[in-house]
Records
---
Amino acid sequence: MSDIPEILRRELIYIWYYFETQLRQIFVYWTLGMVIGSLISVFAKDRIHGLFSNMKDRKWGVLGIIPACILGIASPLCMYGTIPVAASFRRQGMREDWLAAFMTASILLNPQLIIYSAALGTEILTVRIVTCFLCGITAGLLIFFFYHEKEFFDFTGFEERKSRDTDPDLLMRFVKNLGRNIRATGPYFLTGILLSALFQRYVPQDTMIRVFGGNEAWGVLMAATVGVPLYACGGGTIPLLQSWLADGMSPGSAAAFMITGPATKITNLGALKIVMGWRRFLLYLLFIMLFSLGSGLIVNMIM
């Protein structure tokens, strides 16, 4: 450290302080999310998907989008894992509006992300769960009203992938899944904390308030827009959101970011473009932006 210029050394100490402080605050939520996510993936995933598959024989009509949303949120799969499962449901005769609700809810939220989001406080966690649930409901209703007798998704070529959780030893099956979860999310989680530390050190609080704060539509619009390029992994954005909320980000702006982020994640968009085609894919993007803006404004009015 003696060869490092004094000013740089001081800046590194500041950044490490912010990094280490937030790591201590969030690490327990990330760890708990990893464990619960792996437990559900190993021991409950097939049960969740079985419940959704069995819905096709029930005469619930459009009301079936409600349990479809709940099961989509409960599913631990990423979008590239959800689409082959949804394709198998379609082949079994599942309704389009139920599939839309299930897939939208699955994109926006999962049990692991719920645990991560608890680090943001009860109010923001509630906002995330409610707005994501309503987004899935709205997607299902739109498909019901505008594509009631038509197919919206094209699952041609998608086959359900074989489960990687096949070790006969249940404990080892869980440990292997947990290891994959850590490898998949760990780098994004640490990168998110580092970005948060840099924001805290170099971006003035009043700047964050001007950009994201208050009840103005501008803050919600900015948060919805920033969510498009910045979102890479749910766990990685929690440190950023925690820092921004502490600096004055409004709950509505957070809600907008938490919808557009996962809904426009690059890997999710790539999968959705394949099953929608360009025209319906653009409609999907328009729906997400309008819903996130409306949700953010309403949340700010209520809170």
Note: Residues 21 and 197 are 9 Å apart (CA to CA).
---
Amino acid sequence: MNYKHLTAAISACERALNEQIENPQNWQLACRDLGNILQGLGRFDEAIQWHSFALESQLNLVEIYFYLGKLHANEENWLEAIASLKNVLEYQPNSVTVYSSLAQIYGRLGQKEAEMDCWYRALNLRPDLSDARGYHKLAKALQEDGKIEAAITCYQRAIERSQNFFAPYYELAEIWFQQGQLEQASSCYQTILAQDPNQARAYHKLGSIYLQQNQYEEAIAALRQAIQIDPQFPWAYRELVKTFIKLERWDEAIATCHAIINLVEEFPWVYVYLGNALRQKGRIADAASAFQKACVLRGWHQCLTKNYHFTQDYFTYRIPVWTSHLQSFAAQPDLKILEIGSFQGMSTCWLLDNVLTHSSAELTCVADNFRELFAANLAKTGVKEKVIQLAGNVPQLLASLSPETYDVINFQSKCKLSDRIRQDVALAWQTLKAGGLALFNDYGWTNPVAPEQNPKLGIDQFLNSVKGQWEIVRHAPQAYQLIIKKGVRSQKPGVRIN
């Protein structure tokens, strides 16, 4: 007696099940044989069940299919087990036991989406089947799969089962926040604080909501409370600094930046905010030192060793993205990069120090005009001969460039008008090689008081006109960055940017 005989007996039962209306004797014989084999294997409980089926004149198909499913599962015949259990659902669509069994099988198969769906169905039928942590785990999985409404339901059930378990409150509040339902998000954080007033994270999140609602004094109070509870909570400091800068309370912004540096850590963003506030106070040299420090903390050490002087920083937040996607171009012979808009030369100098390092590499900068500070910083690179400066009417200059010349184009024009952006992108696109990268900066940035300043709108309008001629390499919303590759046709040429 062995497992091969068991497999054969199970198959015989399934065949007999299909024929049982015409040949009930065959079914009874198949059940008895299966019971005998199970008994011989020492699986007595299962054997009794199948012997009892052999004695029944009227078959209970729900029960039969369920036990066939269990047999297949015990033998790890997963697909057969799924088929049998799904047959049960044909007759009994609200079976919690079947959905639970299917969920476990899908889990063994690594089919996460199907597993979560079955658990969700089982819990809808029997909400008491899981505790708060079980619902929270399921909600997280559903959220990761993009099933937001189902995730919300599970987070709410987790909260109902344990009001002192704060994780689902935080997750649910974040969903509300992302959906713009700020009052509901605020209610979650306030509920947490009513139960535990020492939750620094809840005060920080509450402060962020107040900022969204332009309730600045309430935001400041909440963020200060978060810092009082946890003096080393950097994100509460960050929101506080942003608030002070928005309110033009420069001294408080500077003091808060120094507090972060002394008490928490030297984050790059701290020095950027510090530099912005110092500049507004007229402390230009100190601001330049702060921006220089931000560059060093982002890994750009040449900024210090070559003593570049920048009084504004619209670039360092992009360095991690650029490092990741431009590293392959570093030291490449005959590399050609086009930059539209150069300002004080921060991105220009970074490209020369980190990417355009081969002696034959070349950078073309196009701008309405070049500032004295750009020239001074360019001189400090030691390789200013690699740079071609074209000043004047930008559209006319772009139209004069040779087609398919550049490996990379960096769009960072100081003009943010969507119509002008679309025009510049269309002209520059012709100069980009197939396989080349286009770096769009300010992608997603808007001016609330001048809606016509919307780079994303102009960029999207152009890209949608050349569908199928590019693919997204990276979209980094927090860095207002979109990177695409030209000349790669996907199987979905209708990809659309919204």
Note: The beta strands are 336-340, 362-367, 387-391, 406-411, 432-441, 470-476, 481-486.
